[in-house]
Known about the structure:
- The protein is mainly alpha-helical.
- The chain contains 16 helices and no strands.
Amino acid sequence: MRKQMLLIAYALAGxxxxxxxxxxxxxxxxxxxxxxxxxxxxxxxxxxxPEAIDILKLAxxxxxxxxxxxxxxxxxxxxxxxxxxxxxxxxxASKFKPADAEAMRWQxxxxxxxxxxERAVExxxxxxRINPLDVDARILLGAAYxxxxxxxxxxxxxxxxxxxxxxxxxxxxxxxLAELALNRADxxxxxxxxxxxxxxxxxGAHVNLAAAYNSLGQHSEAIKACNEGLRLKPGLAAxxxxxxxxxxxxxxxxxxxxxxxxxxxxxxDIAKRLLDLLPK
Length: 280
């Protein structure tokens, strides 16, 4: 579970956020560590995380109040899948620069990586308070609520993100997932369709649109959506499950069993779920 959460957190970070790489404005307090900080930015730009960490440690040793150095140190640790070390530095970055919404966002991502969902919600909520126009923070807040199982609050966060940026395909997709979890398949389908209008290559949106269609009893439409999702991303286990389910409900048992057989090598747990639905 911990590894899965790390992967989710890193996926969110890669899809939504990039760290600032510009040097901060120098002042008297930061002057001793500024050269080290600038040198570390070069390594960060080249994704040389261990070297960046070594230099940034020196920078914060020279000036423990260098918020930007703590932030970049946290970011480098995050890239090495060390979320607790990352979190400690993001916390210091926020301590010395409390109005930094980005540092607060990354606190939330690090907390997702250690499965501290409630405090992740607090971090993302604080980021939104600092910068109400921060679309990324609202999307991540929705993700944190999702991990807590509070799908209504997740949906509300995604809607706020879409109010600020209506053409955000990620927020539309995530809102669709929340609507599915709330058993509002018709609303979910509408969100997935809009996400696909913006980005037709979102394989997950095709597959989850199929799940919405299956919930609505529109199994022929589900089959079409699944086939498109699997064309874009072959081997997607959820796609084969939804396709098998659609075939089953359409009365094509042979085709349903074929999907269950494919799932055996992709995801045995999901394969068993489909097997349990098939006639003996």
